[in-house]
């Protein structure tokens, strides 16, 4: 079963607007990662935030992590049509020696030109 | 990096047949993962190799599934006596935790359709 829950399941915005996606998880983590998936490029790593970090930026991406609430958010600023994709959060458990990723069910983002 | 490659990209098979998929990870990565993804869901972990050793298998991986990674290089995932419920995208990923890099690099996947 999926570890994370993502919200919303689908999001439709106009190009230039910001998009915010949320992720919740259940157990202590080493890190939380966000991935993007579209039909053209498969699953691509976007950004990683460690359990001792609260906020991280990469280009137009901003990720926050609240370990007390076991939640994270991904903000995409000034969205573009090319940002249309599914976005997944993935958690790496603290006590898991395999470092496997547990994915949420994803948010499907549509950016309208 | 040349990236993770998977073959074949698509496989259509009849129920009851055996299928085998191949994954070639990024050459310097010692960790290799297999995931399965069904429509509208995120990937689900199947199994993990560190070098040639298979160190973890999900309960999702029934005894009809077997994976190998001989010599710690490429990996194969075999499904015996396929069932319609096996229809999914099978993703391979590799990683190296050297230099504090924790992200996984995914291949394009093999889409399996069991008729």
Structure description:
The complex is a heterodimer of chains A (113) and B (115). Helices cover 0% and strands 59% of the residues of chain A. Chain A has no helices and eleven strands. The termini of chain A are far apart. In chain A, 34% of the residues are buried. The mean pLDDT of chain A is 92. The mean pLDDT of chain B is 93. Chain B has 115 residues and is an all-beta fold. Chain B is 0% helix and 49% strand. In chain B, a hairpin with a 2-residue loop joins strand 5 and strand 6. Chain B is globular, with a radius of gyration of 14 Å. In chain B, strands 2, 4, 5, 6, 9, 10 and 11 form a seven-stranded mixed beta sheet that branches. At the A-B interface, strand 4, strand 5, strand 9 and strand 10 of A face strand 4, strand 5, strand 9 and strand 10 of B.
Mean pLDDT figure of chain B: 93
Ends of chain B: how far apart?
36 Å
Number of helices of chain A: 0
Structural category of chain A is mainly beta
Along the chain, the helix and strand elements of chain A come as EEEEEEEEEEE
Structural class of chain B: mainly beta
- Beta-strand content bin of chain B: over 45%
Radius of gyration of chain A: 13 Å
Helix content of chain B: under 10%
| Topology, number of strands of chain B | 11
- What's the overall geometry of chain A? globular
Number of strands of chain A: 11
The amount of helix of chain A comes to: under 10%
Low-confidence stretches of chain A: none
Note the overall shape of chain B: globular
């Amino acid at each position: 079963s999926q570890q994370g829950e993502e919200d919303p399941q689908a999001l439709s915005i106009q190009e230039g607007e910001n998009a915010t996606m949320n992720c919740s998880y259940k157990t202590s983590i080493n890190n939380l990662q966000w991935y993007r998936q579209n039909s053209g490029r498969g699953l691509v790593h976007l950004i990683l935030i460690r359990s001792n970090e609260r906020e991280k930026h990469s280009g137009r991406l901003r990720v926050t992590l609240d370990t007390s609430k076991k939640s994270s958010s991904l903000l995409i600023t000034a969205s573009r049509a090319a940002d249309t994709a599914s976005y997944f959060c993935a958690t790496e458990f603290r006590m898991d020696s395999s470092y496997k990723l547990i994915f949420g069910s994803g948010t499907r983002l549509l950016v309208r030109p | 990096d040349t990236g993770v490659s998977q073959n074949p990209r698509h496989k259509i098979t009849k129920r009851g047949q055996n299928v085998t998929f191949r994954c070639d990870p990024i050459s310097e990565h010692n960790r290799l993962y297999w995931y399965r993804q069904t429509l509208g869901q995120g990937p689900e972990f199947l199994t993990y190799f560190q070098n040639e050793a298979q160190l973890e298998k999900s309960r999702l991986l029934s005894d009809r599934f077997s994976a190998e990674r001989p010599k710690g290089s490429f990996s194969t995932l075999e499904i015996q006596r396929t069932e319609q419920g096996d229809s999914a995208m099978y993703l391979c990923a590799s990683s190296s935790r050297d230099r504090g890099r924790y992200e996984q690099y995914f291949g394009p996947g093999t889409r399996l359709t069991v008729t």
